[in-house]
Amino acid sequence: MRCADMRPHCHPLRAAVLALALYAATMASGRVAAQSLANEAEAAAIRASQAAIGTQTSDLTLVDATGRPLRIAELRGRPVVVSFIFTNCYVVCSGLTLHLRDVVRIARDTLGDGSFAVLTVGFDSAHDTPERMQAYARDRAIVDPDWHFVGGDPLTVRRLTDELGFTWAPSPRGFDHVTQVTLLDGAGVVAAQLYGEAFEPPELVEPLKRLVLRQRVERSSVQGLIERVRLYCTVYDPAARRYRFDYSMLAAGLPPLFALAAVALGFTYLTRRRR
After folding, report:
1. What is the extent of the structural domain holding 262?
2. Are residues 75 and 11 in the same domain?
3. Counting Cβ atoms within 10 Å, is residue 105 exposed (0-12), middle (13-18) or buried (19+)?
4. pLDDT tens-digit profile of 21-54?
5. Is 127 a residue whose pLDDT tops 80?
6. Which of 50, 156, 187, 259 could form a disulfide with 152 if both were Cys (CB 3.0 to 4.6 A apart)?
């Protein structure tokens, strides 16, 4: 029999190379398909997250790290920064929490203590008990009276995550989820979404500043006006990683401020004369 009739037997090396090439092509195709599915899932998660902007949160009851019930309504009246974690996540969730800790410190220095609250929700109801949430906060050196680490029963947690547009699902690694921080306004309405575990501080502080200013704009006192001017004129210094007062913004804003003050004084004078 001619060698051509026994090609696989006559060229075992060539057959092995072809088999390896076919295997590599199959694996590459599988990786591309898997990546495509992952990209589609991520895009769907971001769409769901963005669709939640403008949603009014319900007055749900969670359980804080001391075991005390905490109603969402208790946090109304000021902005709330919400993050989602599960305590068995030691990389992404932990990294996000540590980064958020640093950004929250910058925000507190800029906006003042008590100007906003932080809520970290453990969405793995089976494991994120008050004891685990307390240990999670302690291990990350978070000691902040306005930062609440909470969990809840599965239905309550699922309802909250749905309202805030947070997508998560069980997986062999624990849970697949979007890395998301949600910002609520003083009425409990979803105002903004942030993504990733290492966002720049202004991405959170600037929308927080706008929400705080909106709350304080109703104050007619001199102290309220001074506070609004201070917030308006603070800018982020990336080299120092903090906010500082920018006097050039104050100089640019003085003429309209004087005009506004003159109008306010005139209106007050006319109102008093009519009485």
Report:
1. 217-274
2. no
3. middle
4. 555 555 444 554 445 545 777 888 899 999 999 9
5. yes
6. 156
